[in-house]
Amino acid sequence: MAGSGDLDAAGGKDPLSSVALDPYSGEQLYRQLYRSLRNAILTGAWDEGEIIPSENELRDRFAIARTTVRNAMALLVREGLVRQERGKGTMVSHRPVSHSVWNFGSFTDLARASGQRPVTRVIEHRIEDGVLVLVRARGLGGLGQVEWLNLDTSWLPLDQYPGIDGYDFAAQSLYAVLRSKYGRHPARSELLLTVIPPTDQLRDVFGQMPDPSGYLCATGDVLDPGGNRVERTSIVYSPKVEMKFATRWGHGTAEPAA
User: Fold this and answer.
1) pLDDT (tens digit, 9 = 90+) per residue, 131-155?
2) Is 177 helix (H, G, I), strand (E, B) or coil?
3) Can you give the residue range of the structural domain that contains 54?
4) β strands within 97-200, DSSP E
């Protein structure tokens, strides 16, 4: 079942024009609808305070039960992405802010773009409950030495990526393999930043230095343009890495107070 047309009733771009709900998928319909609406909101398809399609509109458009729509809406409300007001409808309550974390992305692509030589050391490469668990130290090489900058852990389901456990990711870029061999294109990430305590493994990777009180760790999902998970990841950064954030406020949001 798919949405119809590329334009909405007002002649503007329809954020749901490419959405298709699959009743034969193993994922419940309300979860599919929730994920599609969530992705549209997070990518700025609707502005803060804008009314999204009503329950009746979504029910008729996708030929699904009203309870299916309500269950999807309940998840969006619980997550704080929309609010429902009597007499007005359901409106976006998520201010569209996009974050670009410098030093995050395809490590290989970033290093080469800056004219540096990326180096990878595979620390773990094991299968666990049908999932490839890949742990890699990532660094930059020069003058016969490597400065290790982060420790990456990737979880990659074998049913989604058959044969991926046969690649040598000390020599090949994971994202290059995902793009070229599996047609998966990482587009954005949703990460939780925390601080984790020092461990023997982190000391071994990052070398002997005064122990910091903790290491910055980014954990979450890397998503494709449709909002589907490409990989689950955890990245621990060396204390030598400087994290810089660039923030772009969405159209129509208030100017920051002076």
Assistant:
1) 999 999 998 886 678 888 899 999 9
2) helix
3) 29-95
4) 97-102, 117-128, 131-142, 145-157, 188-196
